Amino acid sequence: MYRAITRQIEVTVEPNFLPERSSAENRQYFWSYTIVITNSGAETVQLRTRHWIITDATGRRQEVRGEGVVGEQPVLAPGERFEYTSGVPLPTASGFMSGRYQMVSASGERFEIDVPTFSLDSPDGKRVLN
């Protein structure tokens, strides 16, 4: 599990390789990832936008920006959490993702929180130690 905390908002990520949706012969690899956002702060916040940077094993980067996550812009009161699962395809057997969410507080302040960089690894990937 990967974890980041920004302004008392914790984001955890658990990636999962999906062999049933992947094909090494066709250079298609697919992962799901489950994210939990927990508001440990004292103010209600809302997730407004997402920004992902997805990098495959060859170093090719793709940026994804959009409103909310999985069609929602969740509001988190103090102590509340929001969990969702999404997915990502890659043309390589490994890669990684990093990102940020834009939040807005109940008082109208906009700020960004970090999503921890997380690794996407399949059993087909060759590990190289430096």
Task: Summarize the helices and strands and which ones pair or pack.
Elements lengths: L1 E5 L2 E9 L11 E11 L5 E12 L4 E7 L7 E2 L4 E10 L3 E12 L4 E12 L9
Antiparallel strand pairs: 1-2, 2-3, 3-7, 4-5, 4-6, 4-8, 8-9
Q: Compute the number of strand runs.
A: 9
Q: What percentage of amino acids are in beta strands?
A: over 45%
Averaged pLDDT: 94
* Share of residues in helices: under 10%
Structural class: mainly beta
Q: What Rg do the Cα atoms give?
A: 16 Å
Identify the overall geometry: elongated
- Termini separation comes to 23 Å
- Low-pLDDT segments: none
What's the order of the H and E elements? EEEEEEEEE
The major sheet is characterized as:
5 strands, antiparallel
Helix count, DSSP H or I runs of 4 or more residues = 0
Characterize the structure shown.
The chain has 130 residues and is mainly beta. Helices cover 0% and strands 62% of the residues. The chain contains no helices and nine strands. Strands 4, 5, 6, 8 and 9 form a five-stranded antiparallel β-sheet that branches. Strands 1-2-3-7 form a four-stranded antiparallel β-sheet, with no helix packed on it. Strand 1 (2-6) and strand 2 form a beta hairpin.
Keywords:
elongated, 130 residues, 4-stranded antiparallel beta sheet, mainly beta
